[in-house]
Amino acid sequence: MEIIEMLLDQMGILILIFARIVGMLLTAPIFSQNNIPTNVKLGFSLILAFILLPIMKVPANLQLDNFFELMLLGSKELLLGMMIGFICYLFFSVVYIAGHMIDMEVGFSMASVLNPMDENDEITLNANLIFTMAVLVFLSVNGHHTLIQALKQSFDIVPLGKLNINGMMIEKLISIFISIFIIAFKFSAPIVVAIFLTNVLLGILARTMPQMNVFVVGAPIKILLGIIVLFVVFPLYIGFFEYIFDTMFEHLWDFLHAIVKG
């Protein structure tokens, strides 16, 4: 009975915690996949909210006197959770951008497979392969545990009901987008540079031997070279994935602190 009375007394706090967790699960990588049933996501969010409730630091000036205030604060917590998950999703999109750049150069951009993150979308072959590898590395280094821990620590950095949209948040989001494209270019650089040099060589051959059909000869050469370079650099990608995940959490901390400083 005491537990039930405590829950009834802190029902508003529980709803706010639940809203932020649900928001994160709606947009975070892996957790937001369509093949995870909605009931499972909601149940996991509710269990995690019950776990965090006893250790949550509630601001003294938090007002939950009426339904409208609760809905307003709940909407803000849902938005903050979605932003946390979205930032993590952006760094996973590095894999998509790099994979599309690789497939565009190699010649696989015409072929596509089902997107594991979105059943209504399709991605190219190398993007799917690299994404699968990224998920395995993320799980092997306990990135999903770190993501849940980051969600818990977000309550310490940004207390309940303290989300305020400001200019520093926008600047931080812009810097995150810039970092994503830079990392994606670095990720695909070995294959893109190799294919570029191949195109230069084929151009020279086309000028010196006009009778050679460059388009017929060049396509299989670029595919073969792309596959060879991809498998050569594949072991290096494991360490690069860890760098991406570390950068993701660093930007996430900076974004949360930007909310408070703004």
From TrEMBL:
Residue stretches spanning the membrane: 12-31, 43-60, 80-102, 123-141, 173-202, 223-245
Membrane topology term: Multi-pass membrane protein
InterPro entries tied to this protein: FliR, T3SS_IM_R
Keywords: Bacterial flagellum, Cell membrane, Cell projection, Cilium, Flagellum, Membrane, Transmembrane, Transmembrane helix
Principal location listed in the UniProt entry: membrane
Gene Ontology terms describing biological process: bacterial-type flagellum assembly; protein targeting
One Gene Ontology CC term in the entry: plasma membrane
Family the entry assigns: Belongs to the FliR/MopE/SpaR family.
Name this protein carries in UniProt: Flagellar biosynthetic protein FliR
Organism encoding this protein: Anaerosolibacter carboniphilus
